[in-house]
Amino acid sequence: MQPAMKNDPSSSDQTDLQSARRTLEREIEGLSALSHSLNGEFVAAIETIQAMKDKGRGRLIVAGIGKSGHVARKIAATLASTATPSYYIHPGEASHGDLGMITEDDVIIMLSYSGANAELSDMIAYAKRFHIPLIAMTGNSESELAKHADIPLILPRVPEACPNGLAPTTSTTQMMALGDAIAIALLERMGLTAEQFRVWHPGGKLGQKLKKVSDLMVGGNDLPVVSADTLMADAIITLSSKNLGSVVVADKNMNLLGIVTDGDLKRHMSPDLLQQKVETVMTRGPRTVKADALAAEALDIMLNSASSPITSLVVVDGAGKVAGLIRIQELLKAGLA
Question: What pTM does this model have?
Answer without folding.
Answer: 0.60
